[in-house]
Amino acid sequence: MATIRELARLCGVSPATVSRVFNNPEVVNARTRDEVLRAAQQIGYQPNASARTLATKKSSMVGLVWDTDHRRPGWRHPYFQEILIGLKTALSGRGYHLLLLATSEEKPEESYVHAVRRHNLDGVVMIDSGNRDPSLGYLAESGIACVSLDRPLEGPRTTYVTSDNVGGARQAVRHLYEQGRRSIATISGPAGTGPGTDRLRGYVEELAALGLSQRPEHVVEGDFYLSGGVAAMRRLLRAPEQPDAVFVAGDEMAVGALRAIAEAGLKVPEDIAVVGFDDIELAGLVIPGLTTVAQDKAGIGAAAAEAVVAMINGADAPPPQVLPTTLVVRGSSRL
């Protein structure tokens, strides 16, 4: 691999001038800068990333904080996979890479902040796992550029991106009502998560708007995973009054609900209609196809990337972004 000294000799300039071309190009005259860049391409010179970080105080790296419970297969959840694809694609297009960060349980007030500063990261994107880790609060207050997904956090350079979870839930309940359903239950997300809380709120608000009574036994908390959907639906099927529809706050849980309904010898949608939330790929593959509230998952990742890069480049923290959702009607809710 060509060295900085070889490139400097070829161009007839000092190694310091070559370094400035790559790290502070605005201080080098255009003619010299163009000659160095042309020569670098010809001989295959690549600036040393570590040295460049030291010179510019920027690493072109964004940290990813996702403190998922070790007992749950969070990384394999299809919703998060699509978010990460959107985030990575948008960051790569802006010249940034992602670095996964881990925390220390011994000193939560220091862990993420120290990790960011140790690696000289330019900013951080945080995914809500519902764990309410106090170290996330310290990170948001640190002055580091931070974007949170699905979890409002306050800080001098902090913002968040989420979907219209309340509105999407209301749309799902309204759709079930329009299909003639009057006993509508829900399998909610975990109470500790922003989406879980907001989708339950949307369910409650829409029932009230439609003049339907809310039955406590028709609200069962889930965990956003397949097995949690199976267990929650089995509980609903044991209720004194069996619901004729269920709004499920996540598609993986909804697929689990479909399984539990089939195991009970009932049919979807004839006996019980089902609507999910997310529109993961599996929603269109199960039989019957799952009606669901679609989130713009790639758009969420891209919006997070845009916000964190803007703050890295000196902009003030942008206002929170709430992306719209869309109801996708399939066979699980309509006869």
Automatic annotation (TrEMBL):
CDD domains: HTH_LacI, PBP1_LacI_sugar_binding-like. SUPFAM superfamilies: lambda repressor-like DNA-binding domains, Periplasmic binding protein-like I. The keyword Thylakoid does not apply. This is LacI family DNA-binding transcriptional regulator. One of its GO terms (molecular function) is transcription cis-regulatory region binding. It holds the Pfam family LacI. It comes from Microbispora oryzae. InterPro entries: HTH_LacI, LacI/GalR-like_sensor, Lambda_DNA-bd_dom_sf, Peripla_BP_I. Residues 2-56 form the HTH lacI-type domain. Keywords: DNA-binding, Transcription, Transcription regulation.
